[in-house]
Amino acid sequence: MIGEAAAAIADAVKASGAIVSVEPNSFSTIVSKGNDLLVVVAEGGVFSKNYQYLTSYKGLIFYTKSSQPLSLTRNTEVVTARRIWIPG
Question: Where are the alpha helices (DSSP H) in the chain?
Fold first, then answer.
């Protein structure tokens, strides 16, 4: 069973490619540079609320987690997800 879980995580990493975790201010800078970016947002947290963000820019996937909502530019399309899961 543990081997199956490890294989599922490995497959998820292969399917998603490289996911780059950045600080919230770096994520905001990346979003401000793009035109018509799609950003996926989810609220998470067990003991305290956090906001998770995911976007693709120049072939890489960027991810951040913040204790406060980020301010996104007007030309950013936002999709709200129930959950964002990052493998590994």
Answer: 2-16, 24-33
